[in-house]
Amino acid sequence: MTAVGKTLADEDVLETAKRILSEGYVCDNCLGRQFARISTGMTNRERGRLIKEKLRKRGLLEKEKSSEKCWVCNGLFERVEEWAWRAVAALRDYEFNTFLVGTRMSGLLAENEEMLWELTGAEYAEPLKSEFNREVGKILQRLLGKRVDFKTPDVLVLIDLNRETVELQVRPVFIYGRYRKLVRGIPQTRWPCRSCRGAGCERCNFTGKMYPESVEELIKAPVVEAFEAEDMILHGCGREDIDARMLGRGRPFVAEVVAPRRRTVDLRRLEERIRESSGGKVEVLGLRYVTKDAVEIVKNVKAAKTYRFKLQLAGKVDEQQLRAALEGLKGVIRQRTPLRVVHRRADIVREREVYDVRLVELGEQPIVELRCESGLYVKELVSGDEGRTKPSLSELLGVAAEVSELDVLDVEFELPASGGPT
Predict the structure, then answer these.
(1) Torsion angle defined by CA atoms of residues 34, 37, 40 and 45, in that order, rounded to the nearest 10 degrees
(2) β-strand 165-170 against 282-290: which pairing, if any?
(3) Distance, CA of 94 to chain centre
């Protein structure tokens, strides 16, 4: 916002400028920046030069020595182009469309600016950091042909004036899709060893993991390679048990690709690469670029699910008896936190609904399909979990029952358009 009614020729402006310059040599940028809100349409350097000219015409400013260094910025604005070229070198191997420049000030420059503001006030001033960011950014735009984005830049160029370094903070790429886990015995994400907590010990064969691989790791390797990234994090729409397969359309997930050097790859080819490299254990479908918002949407949605499972019955049950018991499962189920997970989850009673259940095949181990509300524990719905789930199939049959094989057939969710492309 421009100060209303003020001009650079006003007496109080020139008096303040004279007071600033009396402390020692101040460059045009640093002088002009103290009056940035008074006039528009010019740079701080132009503004400072104009003020000095007005002071000289009035005999209030002696000719400055060209060898002098500004006591405010310590010559920083003489090095703007140098810093821009250092940023270009740092960005050389990265694909990006937008950027933003940021600066970590040194303690000396921060102190100098505070001293100046104590002397003159900061009513009309722009911070040194803001001007430096802008001036470096203007040069980068010209050199790279890229545009500045103040909200969600692909890359933040962070200039550390204290350490004299250029760091890059690269915005992640987010990819939405569905994964199918075609084998049993694989967790969704890396499972640290319970004994050593990931450090490596005899129990985990010094891998730091309870299981040698996970869905996340099988997807990660091809993704990291394709995007030349540092890492990948899988955000799933829920998770299936380790001994369960994820079939049907697959489970929705968002892959967060960390610090990618490439931002655009052929996602169809990536799907093929994941399938090949996993040895057919995992495949992904429908990959597409999305925004960061998709992570929270996918993680927090309560999606209905369809399961198929085989029953292991402790006694003989005829078809009519089984069908009647399955019918009795429809409706609200009260489940106390299962014994197998109570060590890591709150021990409370949850109510979940079974929407539909049907007998698919009788046989020695009957096959059942069930559609239910998110958060229902299917294994405990069958076994009863020592009375912690009511009703249960075991209770309704009067015969102990367990799930011998479990598959997830569907997770009812579609990512809305708001999770669209980056």
Answers:
(1) 10
(2) unpaired
(3) 19
pLDDT digits (tens, 9 = 90+) for 383-405: 999 999 999 999 999 999 999 99
pTM value is 0.88
Annotation marks residue 241 as catalytic: yes
The pLDDT, as a whole number, for residue 419 is 54
Given the DSSP bridges, would you call strands 155-160 and 165-170 parallel, antiparallel or unpaired? antiparallel
Tokens matching residue 114: 């505070």
Instruction: Characterise 288 by phi-psi region: left (phi > 0), alpha (psi -120 to 50), beta (else).
Output: beta
Q: Which two tokens stand for residue 298?
A: 């996918």
Residues 392, 412: Cα–Cα separation, whole Å: 24
Averaged pLDDT for residues 343-360: 94
Q: What is the pLDDT of residues 319-351, one digit of tens each?
A: 999 999 999 999 999 999 999 988 888 899 999
- Annotated catalytic residue, options 10, 149, 160, 241: 241
Burial 256-274 (b: 16+ CB within 10 A, else e): bbbbbeebebebeebbebb
388 CB neighbour count, 10 Å cutoff: 19
Helices 11-21, 44-57: crossing angle, 10 deg rounding: 100
Sorted by where each starts, the structural domains of the chain and their CATH numbers stand as 11-170 (3.30.2300.10), 173-301 (3.30.70.2510), 305-411 (3.30.70.3190)
Q: What is the b/e burial string over 160-186, where b = at least 16 CB atoms within 10 angstroms of the residue's CB?
A: ebeeeebebebbbbbbbbbbbbbeeeb
* Residues 216-221: contacts with CB under 8 Å, at least 24 apart: 216/188, 216/189, 216/190, 217/190, 218/186, 218/274, 218/277, 218/278, 218/281, 218/282, 219/179, 219/255, 219/274, 219/278, 219/282, 219/284, 221/277
In whole angstroms, what is the distance from residue 314 CA to residue 398 CA?
Answer: 10
